[in-house]
Amino acid sequence: MDSLSRPLVLMFPPVVECGSGSVSKAGAWAETVGKRRALIVADTFNASRVDCLGLTCETVIYDDIRAEPTTENLDVALALARSFKPDLVVGFGGGSAMDLAKLVAALHDSDQPLSEVIGPGKVRGRTSALIQVPTTAGTGSEGGTRALVTDATNHRKLAVESRHMMADLAIIDPDLTVTVPPAVTAATGIDALAHCVESYTNRNAHPLVDVYAEEGIRLVGSHLRRAVTDGQDREARMAMSLASLYGGFCLGPVNTAAGHAVAYPLGTRHGLPHGLANALIFPYVLAFNVPACPEKTTRILELLGHPAKRSVSPVEVFDLAQAFCREVGIQPAANLPSLDDDELEAMADEAFAIKRLLDNNPRPVERDDILGMYRDLFGLAGTA
Ligand SMILES: [Fe+2]
Question: Which residues hold their Cβ within 5 A of ligand 1, which is an ion?
Answer without folding.
Answer: 191
